[in-house]
Amino acid sequence: MSGAGALGPKTFGLWQSSQPPTVTKYSPRWTGDCADMFASAARVSREGWLEAPIETTGQLARIVAQAVPGKFQRRGFHPATRVFQALRIAVNDELSVLENALPRAVAALRPGGRLAVIAFHSLEDHIVKEFFRGESKDLVNPPYEQIYEVERKATLKEVNRKPITPAEAEIKENPRARSAKLRVVEKLSVSSEQE
């Protein structure tokens, strides 16, 4: 079991402050949601709802559930789901790993080769989308103006501009697929012109 349902012992030293600094580098909306939950849980702790340090994921899940008002809780999701997601992403440095892997994966492709990436949350998908879009554009300065420090031709062509998402039948069969987004690009040859 993972996320809020995992009740194994964990130490949460992050909870000495109201907001772990690692969470702040992510997108404002996602960070705001998680930061609000962290701050609410810290408030719960300060107001004496907690007598001892958080030592298990079960304790953390209960604290977050108490701290998040009912109107902000999504039906079918535990209120601590995004907090656990934020912690996992930060601890595993998942976004930096993805940012470093994408250019290396493209470099390993031959012209005409395709790269497919499945993202399972919006932060990953944003990184993949921006990288693919950036590499799919020619960076050429107009006459008499320098916009780009280095000019270059596009290295990729987006096979699907919008992400491919699972059908309802697939989500019913595999609920974890609900947030999956598949993006595919094709490597261009150096002399290739974009269509």
Sum up the structure in keywords:
39% helix; mainly alpha; disordered N terminus; 195 residues; three-stranded antiparallel β-sheet; 3 strands; Rossmann fold
Describe this structure in words.
There is one protein chain. By secondary structure, the protein is mostly helical. Helices cover 39% and strands 8% of the residues. It has two domains: 3-92, Orthogonal Bundle (DNA polymerase, domain 1), CATH 1.10.150; 94-187, Rossmann fold. The protein has six helices and three strands, in the order ααααβαβαβ. 16% of the residues are buried. Helix 1 (28-46) packs across helix 2 and helix 4 runs parallel beside helix 5 (122-135). The radius of gyration is 21 Å and the shape is elongated. It has a three-stranded antiparallel beta sheet with strand order 1-3-2, with helices on one face.
Over the alpha carbons, how many angstroms does the gyration radius reach?
A: 21 Å
Measured as a percent range, the helix fraction is 25-40%
CATH superfamily of the largest domain: Vaccinia Virus protein VP39
Compute the number of structural domains.
2
Globally, the shape reads elongated
Mean pLDDT: 75
Task: Work out the strand percent.
Answer: 5-15%
* Discrete helix count: 6
Q: H/E series, N to C?
A: HHHHEHEHE
CATH architecture of the largest domain: 3-Layer(aba) Sandwich
CATH topology of the largest domain: Rossmann fold
Secondary structure: number of strands? 3
Catalogue the unreliable spans. Answer: 1-25
N→C terminal distance: 47 Å
Main sheet specs: 3 strands, antiparallel
Instruction: List the strand order in the largest sheet.
Output: 1-3-2
Summing up helix and strand content along with how strands pair, one would put the structural category as mainly alpha
Question: What is the name of the CATH class of the largest domain?
Answer: Alpha Beta
